[in-house]
Amino acid sequence: MILRRLAIGLRKQDWVTVVIETLIVVFGVFIGLQVNNWNEARQERIETHSLLERLERDFEQQLALTDSGIARQLLYLEVTDRLITGIRAGQLDEDFLASDLALVDSIGSMPAPSAAFEELVSTGRMRLIRNAALRDELYRYDSYTGFLYLQFSQVAEPVAELSRVIIRAKTLELTGQPSTRFEQLGRVEAIDHTVLLEDREIMDALQSAYITQDNTHLILIALRARIERILDLLAEERGEPGP
Q: Could you identify which of 118, 135, 195, 202 might form a hypothetical disulfide with 169, taking C-beta atoms 3.0 to 4.6 angstroms apart as the criterion?
């Protein structure tokens, strides 16, 4: 309809009509483009909000797992320290000996890379995160945890070696039946104090394991600081006060 009026105006050289109809067309196209841009911007804001919420949930979970790992690591350090101290003094703490032997060859696990971040990268949506500092921290965290995850078995080797040698001081309880609960697994019937006190390999393995457990504790503390930094930046990106 507008184009027909415009054609008639051109034939009649009715320039006022031509200008008005042209402006109507241009204005209509402009409004259409603006509405389309507004819809795209709105959709992007919704997508970004959802993305940031998922990242926040993921890293809050990472923080909880890391806190749990730190607590366990402190327990393992306490146990290993008590055994080393007792062997050096030639007097083992009988109140804790059985439980200490059950825990001493343990080590806290490292948190895995963020699944939400990896999905964000794989789908090409990193552009939705405007904060350059947040992007950098996410990339660094992913690189660091990925490296630790791949190297964990090597990092934990001294603790695995302790498990291999300290079994010499244990006589396992054999019932002839498989365990039905985890607490039954590896239950000890008797402990050979002489082996614990005199086997030099056990002392060497305990000390190596202590260093590894202490190093793991430091790594977890550093990871916790990285996670807190990311959560602060996520809150900033969402326009919310940090914790």
A: 195
